[in-house]
Amino acid sequence: MVVETGFSSPRTDAFPAGLRVLVVDDDPTWLKILEKMLKKCFYEVTTCCLAREALNLLRQRKDGYDIVISDVNMPDMDGFKLLEHVGLEMDLPVIMMSVDGEIRRVMKGVQHGACDYLLKPIRMKELRNIWQHVFRKKIHEVRDIESMEGIESIHMARSGSELFDDGSFLGGEDTTSGRKRKDADNKRDDKDLGDPSSTKKARVVWTVDLHQKFVKAVNQIGYDKVGPKKILDLMNVPWLTRENVASHLQKYRLYLSRLQKEGDIKNSFMGMKHSDTPPKDSTAGSGIRNSINLTQDNVSNGSFSFPVNHTLAPSVDLKGHEGDRKGITSGPMTELKGPFPIDVSGPRKAKSSKISFDHSLGSVDSVVNFASFGPTDTAQYSWNEIPEIQFKQEYEPLQLENRFSQLPLPGLQHHMLPEYLQPAVSVSPGPSITEKEATSSGFEVKSMYDDYRSNHAKHSSQTEAVGESHSLNNQVFKSISTTTSSMKSQDTVPNHLTVSEFSPKNLYEGVGADDLQLCWPQGDCYATNFGLQGLDCTEHNNPATALETPFHLYDHPFDPTEYYASDQGLFA
Amino acid sequence: MNIVNQLQRQFIDFSTSLHREGFVDDQFTQLQKLQDENSPDFVVEVVSLFFEDCEKLINNMARALEQTQGVDFKQVDASVHQLKGSSSSIGAMRVKNACISFRSFCEAQNREGCLRCLQQVTHEYSLLKNKLQTLFTLEQQILAAGGSIPVVD
């Protein structure tokens, strides 16, 4: 079987030469030495001395790096945290470095997902070998893809000819497929070639959407009882493997535990972030983010994956699922009213809001922290609160425009979101929807919404609501984009908002479209939404925050409906 | 013996003594090996960076230890840890060792002990700086005389 390494770029032939390495170390001496050593290995080296900067770089250029080498002790962020983020968002191999070789530290590194832990002083020969980690990862991905492909073909054949499953009809081919089918059944790998990027890359990218599904599943099962298989079953993503889920679950656990521990630090991070991104309505964004995703992506990331569509349901428990809700609504959310206090104060508030949605609930801070990570579009970030990202595609055009010139096409969900988030939420991103903007835009949105609603009017059922929410969201987003920082109002109808994303059941239960509309008090979006929602915020716990994020982003007066839509995930 | 040979001889002797006396270790040799035509002043640049960082950290420690109200030992320890990492980058063994004992005094929150260690660290840093400057001067002289710098393993 041909093992496709996945290196399709020109450097492939010369591999490992040309390996793109990102080195993060606050020690300038080491940075210089490592750069020189890596260059001697014929690697392409990028250096940075701040973890946040590193995350920005990574998020901006997804697939721009093959491996990350980072020191453990850094002033702005713990190396382990960076490690987590990279693992979750970008799924790149990360090597840790330290002058401290204490066993416990090394263990911690490995636990957090480091594929190696080097002790300083580092020698050339150790660096020469780092390509192995990249190669290994590719192989595993390829294997997954290939098996999935195999399974997929079987499935296709199977679905196409159920009757002939017994094999007699297809003859020899059937036996093979039969076998494969068995494997497929065992693995539950149905590679759905629907994700072109994944096939090419043979790597599972945990987009906001996907992560949201994951979080939702986890919450449904109950965090204490989760297991990869259960999650996989619930997620119902054909091409995902148990292994993918298992490794993601591990990262997620780490992330959660870290969030729970974190608190004020995040706030400070948030503050940091916000300040960093002055121009963009980061404040607003941050505020939102906080509420939404804060957990993961600090506002800065922008990746605030606003799970626009989904998040509403489960995770966004903005409402009140958790006491946090209040925080959210009253906290950052309200804060957002203004220019999105998020920026600095944001984090704090966000915390509260955030809490609701992220799993850590209480950790608005945690969310914040994330935010701090990357004001920039953290497309990848969405995983944190992936729920929010759902919108990513849709949103992207709307908001991100400002900042995200790089935003990928709508097709790239995860990419999109970050962008999306960014403007609105992210502290850093420019487009963040600041309160002011929100206000102005909010109006627009509202009207848009109204128009939209009238257009769509007719369904009254839940589904309808859902649909509306979808559309609303779209509208919202659209308006957001227009209103907020010159976002291009592309009509990004949030696809993700589409019904598929939403789980009508949770989102609109009992909530009429009208309800949604209600709330969009300026800045007090959350509050309103929640009210409307009346939803069972149960799902809220889920990373729905992601879902929430979208709301947050739009903190400015979006049609409640819109909010609702996104909130669905949260409140579900 | 012509001037180049003389200088080269001096260089080798001096280099060997630096290693022998523990001023630098193998890491320094590695740095010298990294130097090439693409970066002919690599070692000097790296060492300069190190000295800059060193001074900054020493100042931080001094300031922190001066606090009469209450010394923030965590901060001091953080700086020492950083210096330790930094010194390992160029193989500054004696500085690194001074940091190790420094850290235990930080942990014990022993201000006197810390001050003594700080003194020692500063002393080692000055010594090393002088030694390396001498080494670099020798190198310059060799090159100026038309010779090449010998590789000392």
TrEMBL record, chain B:
Residues 39-142 form the HPt domain. Signal peptide: none annotated. SUPFAM superfamilies: Histidine-containing phosphotransfer domain, HPT domain. Keywords: Cytokinin signaling pathway, Phosphoprotein, Two-component regulatory system. Its main location: cytoplasm. The keyword Phosphoprotein applies. It holds the Pfam family Hpt. The modification Phosphohistidine is found at H81. The keyword Iron-sulfur does not apply. InterPro entries: AHP1-5/YPD1, HPT_dom_sf, Sig_transdc_His_kin_Hpt_dom. It is found in: Cytoplasm, Cytosol; Nucleus. Functions as a two-component phosphorelay mediators between cytokinin sensor histidine kinases and response regulators (B-type ARRs). Plays an important role in propagating cytokinin signal transduction. Histidine-containing phosphotransfer domain (HPt) contains an active histidine that mediates the phosphotransfer. PANTHER family: HISTIDINE-CONTAINING PHOSPHOTRANSFER PROTEIN 5 (PTHR28242:SF13), PHOSPHORELAY INTERMEDIATE PROTEIN YPD1 (PTHR28242). This is Histidine-containing phosphotransfer protein.
